[in-house]
Amino acid sequence: MVQRDLALLEKHGVTSLDDLPPEVQAVREGHVAQSDAFAYGLLPADSQDARKLPPNNGYTSKVRVLDRYKVIGFISSGTYGRVYKAVGVNEQSGEFAIKKFKPDKEGEMIQYTGISQSACREMALCSELSHPNMIHLVEIILEDKCIFMVFEYAEHDLLQIIQHHIQPTRHPIPASAIKSILFQLLSGLLYLHTNWVLHRDLKPANIMVTSKGEVRIGDLGLARLFYKPLHNLFSGDKVVVTIWYRAPELLLGSRHYTPAIDLWAVGCIFAELLSLRPIFKGEEAKMDSKKTVPFQKNQMQKIVEILGMPTKAKWPGLVHQPEFTQLQSISSAVREASQGNTGLESWYWNTLKSTGYPDSPPSANPGAQGLDLLAKLLEYDPAKRLTAEQALQHPYFTANGDRVTANCFEGMTTQYPHRRVSAEDNDIRTSSLPGTKRGGLPDDSLTGRPTKRMKE
Question: Is 444 a catalytic residue?
Answer without folding.
Answer: no
